[in-house]
Design goal:
There is one protein chain. By secondary structure, the chain is mainly alpha-helical. It has one domain. It has five helices and three strands, in the order αααββααβ. A hairpin with a 4-residue loop joins strand 1 and strand 2. The longest helix is centred in the C-terminal third of the chain and has 16 residues. The protein is globular and about 30 Å long.
Length: 100
């Protein structure tokens, strides 16, 4: 799974430069994929929700979510339970927010 995370250059994916922070995607996904507890999972989820995949405060979702969704689903299925729960919490935002 870590190879899948590193295989994409998220800086090449479009997004509002004011809100999208592509460096948060890889670090957030890596942290979530390797999280072994609630604090680690919550920190990773915060990176992803704060400009990586979505921007909670503005209600924006970024194109990076397209390549991250299979990884999130794998984390839900195979990851630590706290990591899986954190990944699952991101999906309502992904589905409800407007595309940037």
């Amino acid at each position: 799974m870590l190879e899948e995370i590193d295989a994409v250059n998220r800086g090449d994916l479009p997004g509002s430069l004011d809100l999208y922070e592509p460096d948060r995607v890889a670090t957030g996904l890596r942290a979530l994929a390797t999280a072994t507890g609630l604090v680690q999972a919550a920190g990773a989820g915060s990176r992803l929700a704060g400009g990586g995949l979505v921007h909670d405060h503005s209600g924006a979702v970024f194109p990076s979510v397209v390549v991250a969704t299979p990884i999130l689903l794998t984390i839900v299925r195979d990851g630590h339970p706290d990591a899986g729960a954190t990944a699952a919490v991101l999906f309502p935002s992904v589905c409800a927010f407007r595309s940037e």
